[in-house]
Description:
Blueprint: H1 4-10, E1 16-24, E2 27-34, H2 45-52, E3 53-55, H3 59-63, E4 68-71, E5 79-83, H4 89-104
Amino acid sequence: xxxxxxxxxxxxxxxxxxxxxxxxxxxxxxxxxxxxxxxxxxxxxxxxxxxxxxxxxxxxxxxxxxxxxxxxxxxxxxxxxxxxxxxxxxxxxxxxxxxxxxxxxx
Length: 106
C-alpha cells in the first residue's frame, strides 16, 4: 500500500517533484516544481570546470581572437569571461570565486 506522500508524489509529472501543497480554487493540490539537475553546492569544482568552460561560438568573439568562455551560472547564455586559450582549473576557480563575491556580497 502506498503512503500518503508516495500517493502525492505520483501525481506530479515526469521531471517534477512535489514541494508541499497549494490551493487551486477551493481545493488543495500538490505543488509540483521542476527537479533540480544539480542541487546547490553539490557540484565539485572539477565537474563545474568540465561543464562550464566551453568553446565560444559567437562570431564577434572569434573576430577578437577569443576561443573559450566560462558560462554563467544561472544564465548560461551569458559569458563570465572570454579567453584566447582554454583557461586552467585554477583560473576557473578564481573567476567563480570572484563572481560569487558579486552574487553574495563576499
